[in-house]
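Our preliminary data section would be incomplete without showing what the modeling component actually yields. Below, a chain of 186 amino acids is followed by its predicted structure, encoded as C-alpha cells that our downstream tools consume directly.
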Amino acid sequence: MLEEILNSKADASVLSFFLTAPERSFSPFEISKRLKLSYLKTTHTLNKLVLHGQLKSFSKKGKKYYLVNPRYKLLPLIRDYLLKNGSRYQDELFSAIKNLGEVRAAFLSGLFVGEPGLPVDLLLVGKVKAEKLEDFLKRLETLMGQEINYSLMSEAEFKTRRNTFDKFIKDIFDYRHLVVCDSITK
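Predicted structure:
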C-alpha cells in the first residue's frame, strides 16, 4: 500500500506536504493551489489517504478539512524518510501572520487544528494594521472556504485574561493549538 502511494506522484506529493508542513488542517482548495494539482485529483488523493489512515478529515459548515492522523503507525518512519530526502514546506500562513504588524503572539486553534467547535480559529496578540488584517482574512477565508473566527487583543489584555484563567483563553490552551509566534509567554 505504501509503495502504491509513493509510486503515484500526486499521492506522494500530498502525503509529503502533510508530513513536512506544520501540523494544521488544510482545505482541498489550499492543497490543490499549493501543490499545483487539479482540485479533482487533490480531493481524490485526500480521500484515498483518509481511507488508508494517513490523514483524517472533519467538516465545518459543510466544508471538509484534512490533517495528519497522528495514530498512523508508519507516520514517524515516513516523516523521517521525507525529511531526509525531500523538501520542507514553509507555511505561508505563518509568515503572513507575522507580517500583519507588531504581532507579539499568534495561536491557531479551532478550524486549523481539527477542533471546529472551539470559538476561535486565530488569536492575535499585539498591534495589527487594520488594512493588512482585512486583506489577510479575505485571502485566508478564500483558501479555507469559510469565515475565520479570530480575536485580536493587546498584550496587556492577553496577560490579564491568561493570568485570571479566562475561559476564552483557557479554551484555546486546554485544547490542541499551534503556536505561530510567542514572545510573551516565554
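The chain has two domains: 2-89, 93-182. The chain has a mean pLDDT of 89. Preliminary results of this kind motivate Aim 1 of the renewal.
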